[in-house]
Amino acid sequence: IVNLWSNQDWSKGDEKLLQAVEQDEPEKVAALILKKGLCPSKLDTEGKSAFHLCASRGRMDCLEVILAHGVDINLMDGMGFNALHLAAKNGQPECLKRLLQERIPVDSTDSFGRTSLHHAGTVCFSFSLLLVCHYVLNNAFF
């Protein structure tokens, strides 16, 4: 079986960046990006990145650091989800709200054809669902 996300350039530094996000250490995230020049959107062998991990785990401070240093907000992870899909799917309303402020397209679909609204509704995170609906209605994404 071939791993499609396998990256020969994956390093210990990249792993440290994922761990810093997992442990919610925004100062360490900033230091690794600035001093080591690490890319927060780089996918590991499982198809996940530090950026996507922030959205799915609700690591707001780490997400702010990554957004401040620039990241392609539309980037899909190895499973075909963007950060907005992951925030909606995992009930992370603060991350969802912040990503919407970045103008991430709410109508973008994952590899299964689902939008963030589908994900918010599927897992019954009512606040996430209301937040996406409110954003869609107020920004005329029809």
Automatic annotation (TrEMBL):
Keyword Coiled coil: yes
GO molecular function term, any single one: actin binding
Pfam families from the UniProt entry: Ank_4 (PF13637)
Annotated PANTHER family: ANKYCORBIN
Glycosyltransferase recorded as keyword: no
Domain of life (superkingdom): Eukaryota
This protein's UniProt keywords: ANK repeat, Coiled coil, Repeat
Protein name: Ankyrin repeat domain 24
ANK repeats: 46-78, 79-111
